[in-house]
Amino acid sequence: MPRNGILSSLALLPCLMALTVQADARPFDQLPPEQQAFWQKLGAFCDKAFPGELSDVTDYYRDALTDRELVAHGVSCSDERIHVALHVDDNRSRNWILTIVDGTIRLKHDHRYPDGSEEDISQYGGDAPVPGLPRRQIFPADAHTADILPQRADNFWFMDFVDDDTFNYGVHWPKQGHSVRLAFDLSRPVEAPPLPWGYE
Question: Domains (ranges, CATH) in the chain?
Answer without folding.
Answer: 1-30 (no CATH), 32-185 (2.40.128)
